[in-house]
């Protein structure tokens, strides 16, 4: 009888261990599933062209999606041509202007934002590289950073090249002046050539 009781006790202990182990792994599995879902959602946002919202500008990275939003909202597209990992003026513009809370609040309401990056070290998909090169030629951009305004139909309104450490409010004012001046029917201004390309 004691041998039989010992075997039963071992069997019960094994079952209890399996049940306990499955209960312990369940929260881990749930947590893993939630993290995987969040990662997939973040990757989907990036591939759809929208950066994570929050206290930063929400940039599209795909021209077709930016045009679709511009058409839907009736806003012009502000296209930023940048070299984010190698261009000092581009980095200054990002740090000094595009991260400013006032600029974020006003620019996000006024324009559909499209960032076309030309990195040297950062990986980039082949389709995005092709799209960016095509738009660089289409809009006649010859230096970085360059901002081009296009209407919802994708026609260029105006362009502004370079950045020389203006304050966010000054830069926003300059952008709105350039956009307004040429949106009113004046001749389109092609961005000037810049040596820092």
| Helix-strand category | alpha+beta
Any idea what the CATH architecture of the largest domain is?
3-Layer(aba) Sandwich
CATH topology value of the largest domain: Glutaredoxin
Which parts are unreliable, with pLDDT below 50 for 5 consecutive residues or more? 28-54, 192-197
User: Strand arrangement, largest sheet?
Assistant: 2-1-3-4
Main sheet properties: 4 strands, mixed
Fraction in helix: 40-55%
What value does the average pLDDT take? 79
Distance from first to last alpha carbon: 88 Å
In DSSP terms (H or I, runs of 4 or more residues), the helix count works out at 6
Q: Please, could you describe this protein's structure?
A:
- This protein folds into 2 domains: 1-48; 63-183, Glutaredoxin (3-Layer(aba) Sandwich), CATH 3.40.30.10.
- Helix content is 55%, strand content 12%.
- The protein is built from 6 helices and 4 strands.
- The chain has helices spanning 2-48, 63-73, 88-98, 101-110, 126-138, 168-183; strands spanning 77-82, 112-117, 146-150, 156-161.
- Residues 28-54 and 192-197 have low confidence and may be disordered.
Note the main attributes of this structure.
elongated, four-stranded mixed sheet, Glutaredoxin, disordered C terminus, 55% helix, 197 residues, alpha+beta, single chain, 6 helices
Please summarize what this structure is.
The protein has 197 residues and is an alpha+beta fold. Helix content is 55%, strand content 12%. The protein is elongated.
Helices and strands in order, then pairings?
Blueprint lengths: L1 H47 L14 H11 L3 E6 L5 H11 L2 H10 L1 E6 L8 H13 L7 E5 L5 E6 L6 H16 L14
Parallel strand pairs: 1-2
Antiparallel strand pairs: 1-3, 3-4
